[in-house]
Amino acid sequence: MNTSAKKTVVLVDDEQSIIDSLRRTLHNEGYNLATFTNAKEALNFIQENRGNVDVIVSDNMMPELKGVDFFIQVKKHYPNVVRIMLTGQSNLEDAQNAINEGKVYKFLLKPCKPDELRAVIKKAIAQRQLWIQYKTLMKRLSEQEKILLSLEKNYPGITRIETDQSGRILISDTQDETLEDFMSKYCL
């Protein structure tokens, strides 16, 4: 993952004036901004740019597809994309659905202070990078565990280390084993 690459932020709101305001707020932040007044169009964009969208900021109350339902679809297909709800009309049920079903990172109310929005997006990108690094490390760990299991299966005892009471590693007696014998026995 290239952490220095320009990050893509998708902005979704059915009101063009809100989109324009968000664009002005974020234009100097160095993001690739993609703006939509329709959640279905935004979803198409995300599908076309699979893996290259970092954060989505979306309104909730929109025609055709509510923000919560939009986020549920995004979460299902693109769980690494960080989702931020920015809405002017909220109720407890919408907030709960956004958090529980759409797994939003943050729920913000309009009007949102520009500095707060910038800070939340910056933290969201950092969160996404941490999640991707975590998944990469877990995949590597799984691969290493498979290698160790294979080694242990083919060469029983090779992955075990014996220590004495003080914690020093004990090296077993090889009984005049030659380097060639050792290599043929333990090297793949």
Offer a few descriptive terms.
6 helices; Rossmann fold; 188 residues; 5 strands; alpha/beta
How would you describe the overall organization of this protein?
With 188 residues, the protein is of the alpha/beta class. It has a domain at 8-137: 3-Layer(aba) Sandwich (Rossmann fold), CATH 3.40.50.2300. The chain has helices spanning 16-26, 39-48, 67-77, 92-100, 114-154, 179-186, and strands at residues 8-12, 32-36, 55-58, 82-87, 106-109. The mean pLDDT is 86.
Map the helices and strands.
Blueprint: E1 8-12, H1 16-26, E2 32-36, H2 39-48, E3 55-58, H3 67-77, E4 82-87, H4 92-100, E5 106-109, H5 114-154, H6 179-186
Parallel strand pairs: 1-2, 1-3, 3-4, 4-5
Helix pairs in contact: 2-3
Give the count of helical stretches: 6
Q: From the coordinates shown, what is the CATH architecture of the domain at 8-137?
A: 3-Layer(aba) Sandwich
Structural class: alpha/beta
Largest sheet: 5 strands, parallel
Q: Report strand %.
A: 5-15%
Which strand order does the major sheet show?
Answer: 2-1-3-4-5
Query: So what's the overall shape?
Result: elongated
Strand element count: 5
SSE string, helices as H and strands as E:
EHEHEHEHEHH
